[in-house]
Amino acid sequence: MTTVRTKSEQGMMMSTTTIRAHLVELKKELEGRLARIAAEREERNAPDNDQWSDQASLHGRDDEQFAVQLAASNELIQVNDALSRLDTGHYGFCTVCGEPIEAERLEVLPYAVRCKVHAV
């Protein structure tokens, strides 16, 4: 028995490898960003760091750095969720209506869970 796929299904099937590669690349980038933030924080809080002027300058950036860390952590969660959906065959479908998410939207936001109609 031969299975016939629609053009959109064929496009999704052909690009699964590309989608996964892009998500994995994004995941590595986010993990690297989080590791750099942790290393900077560790260096700043090191007991042998006696350069008070440098510490004051670095501590002044705490709020900014926390915001960057929080954004990267949240994005990493979304990327991991997208990889899980890819593994289970649920990637690319709106969680509200169940319809396919527009390809253009997934290109810009590869971890999107809603179509344009239901995007908040």
TrEMBL record:
<keyword id="KW-0479">Metal-binding</keyword>
<dbReference type="InterPro" id="IPR000962">
    <property type="entry name" value="Znf_DskA_TraR"/>
</dbReference>
<keyword id="KW-0862">Zinc</keyword>
<dbReference type="Pfam" id="PF01258">
    <property type="entry name" value="zf-dskA_traR"/>
</dbReference>
<keyword id="KW-0863">Zinc-finger</keyword>
<feature type="domain" description="Zinc finger DksA/TraR C4-type">
    <location>
        <begin position="91"/>
        <end position="116"/>
    </location>
</feature>
<dbReference type="GO" id="GO:0008270">
    <property type="term" value="F:zinc ion binding"/>
</dbReference>
<protein>
    <submittedName>
        <fullName>TraR/DksA family transcriptional regulator</fullName>
    </submittedName>
</protein>
